[in-house]
Design goal:
Strand order of the largest sheet: 2-1-3-8-7-4-5-6
Helix content: 25-40%
Cofactor: Mn(2+)
Distance between the termini: 44 Å
Number of strands: 8
CATH topology: Arginase, Chain A
InterPro entries: Arginase, Ureohydrolase, Ureohydrolase_dom_sf, Ureohydrolase_Mn_BS
Order of helices and strands: HEHHEHEHEHEHEHHEHEH
Radius of gyration: 19 Å
Number of helices: 11
Strand content: 5-15%
Oligomer: single chain
GO molecular function: arginase activity; manganese ion binding
Structural class: alpha/beta
EC number: 3.5.3.1
Shape: globular
Bound molecules: manganese (II) ion
Pfam family, one: Arginase
CATH class: Alpha Beta
Number of domains: 1
Length: about 350
């Protein structure tokens, strides 16, 4: 019964790929890097190395019309003193506001949006802008070694890239202090519309929040127990149980094992294999519900060798291609005709 349902929607997924334009919006919101101490954190180079690996050409080759909006640029905010423990609040808040407006525009034009990061704090603006444009509930699939759901008050480090989900969840609104440059942020995701995949490094405070809100999580333990195919079936059944909501995929490359994707800021052993990482996107593509994708935390400066950087970048590209119809069984254009002798 489930199989039959899936097969039907896979057809819709294929149509989506052929008819929709996918849009690249390259963004870098890099929160933890002090401009004085560390002028180049490296993660801001993520979008350009992913482009250089041929993402646009490869998407076009599989039938996507791609519009590259280029890199969003943001002004440095000086001074940007910590607010409590939270670092670079004004810069990250302002950048995300700009990003949210850009993503809203892209969605109103009817495109599937792709945001290349940059660190994961960009999900604040990305998801916010996506939800604002749709004006209907959104399902969020968060693929990550980390939950990124600390509030500014629970965060042990003060890094905003460990907090984005907390600003977006309705149920946490009363726990979020007012921060400069964040007054525009309105919660837009219900805790029941969020699914995590790949968790294996969750702070105690975050674990408390996940249990308190009864958030659906597939940690690496569940991936081991159920297998990735079952995890994806359950993820999509859960998110679409009542109504088929558009899906926002927020994909942190550190969800995948550091043996495959080492060039990232906070690698954690015991992650998804390359195959599991790609399978997630193949499955989501087939639902026909994928509406926006973040690809974050690719950091070429964190690769110790060129091979490490290339392995990370190639995997990020393959994950994105999977979102837009690439299948490992092979693909061919709908209008292909065999040459006649
Ligand atoms: Mn993350």
């Amino acid at each position: 019964r489930v199989k039959k349902k899936k097969k039907k929607s896979s057809h819709v997924g294929l149509l989506m790929v052929l008819l929709c334009t996918s849009v690249l919006l390259c963004v870098c919101v890099c929160d933890p890097v002090s401009p004085v101490l560390q002028p180049r954190g490296g993660v801001e180079r993520g979008p350009d190395v992913i482009r250089a690996a041929g993402l646009v050409e490869k998407l076009q080759a599989q039938g996507c019309a791609v519009k590259d909006y280029g890199n969003l640029s943001f002004e440095e905010v000086v001074p940007d003193e910590p607010v409590g423990r939270a670092k670079r609040v004004r810069a990250v808040g302002g950048a995300n506001q700009k990003l949210a407006e850009a993503v809203s525009r892209v969605k109103r034009d009817g495109h599937t949006a792709v945001m290349l990061g940059g660190d994961h704090s960009l999900a604040i603006g990305s998801i916010h802008g996506h939800a604002a444009a749709l004006q209907s509930p959104l399902g969020v699939v968060w693929v990550d070694a980390h939950a990124d759901i600390n509030t500014p008050l629970t965060s042990p480090t003060g890094n905003l890239h460990g907090q984005p989900m907390s600003y977006l969840i309705h149920e946490l609104q009363s726990k979020i202090p007012a921060l400069p440059s964040f007054s525009w942020v309105k919660p837009c995701v219900a805790a029941k519309d969020l699914v995590y995949i790949g968790l294996r490094d969750v702070d105690p405070e975050e674990h408390y929040i996940l249990k308190l809100l009864d958030v659906k999580t597939f940690s690496m333990t569940e991936v081991d127990r159920l297998g990735i195919a079952r995890v994806m079936e359950e993820t999509c059944d859960y998110l679409t149980a009542k109504v088929k909501k558009p899906i926002h995929l927020s994909y942190d490359i550190d969800a995948i094992d550091p043996s495959v994707t080492p060039a990232t800021g906070t690698p954690v052993v015991g992650g998804l294999s390359y195959r599991e990482g790609v399978y997630i996107t193949e499955h989501l593509c087939q639902t026909g519900l994928l509406s926006a994708v973040d690809m974050v935390e690719v950091n070429p400066a964190r690769g110790r060798t060129e091979d490490e950087v290339q392995s990370t970048v190639r995997t990020a590209v393959d994950v994105l291609l999977g979102c837009f119809g690439r299948r490992r069984e092979g693909n061919h254009p709908a209008d292909y005709r065999m040459p006649e002798p």
